[in-house]
Predict the structure.
Amino acid sequence: MEAKKDSTEDKILEAAKTVFVNKGMEGARMQEIADEAGINKALLHYYFRSKERLFEAIFAEIIKFAFPKITRIVKSDDPIVTKIEQIIDAYIDLLIKHPFIPGFIMKELNRDPSGLFKMIVKFGLNPQIIMDQAQKAMDRGEIIQIKPQHLGINVVSMCVFPFAARPILSFVLFRDDPKALETFYAERADVIKKFVIDAIVIKK
């Protein structure tokens, strides 16, 4: 019975991801999610009483996958360059496993940024920590002087854009060849790491 319950919950979460990405939180309907999952609406309400709880469950799933790894990286004693490389690896790994994330988050930022920010705070995400570490590395002369905010956005945007623009990349660059596109994504972390490190490390 427990295995069936877990299977049903997984189906609901996958269906909700699909509907939320296509419709956003506001446009999504519980009936649509139930239809996508292949269950009746009553069973959906048994597992999740509202769209908000579903949204939080999906976000929690993402955080449980990514946050412990990122936290270990940030709290480690590794040099800032190593941390940046590890964060890029973790971010690309997250996006390969959950490619719906960029579209999902952008729709919610346009709809209700305060709700998303509250959830980020709830799960304890604090990018200021790594930015402070980057600033200290600059003060020590390990990396070039650049606003930590710009450094963070440069890294994140290079990771996220290819996934957010997946349909464009697939059609324009890879002629709708899924294997070529997946190879590109598999290479992406190494390309970004080399580009960022070459740009910021002070040669001595």
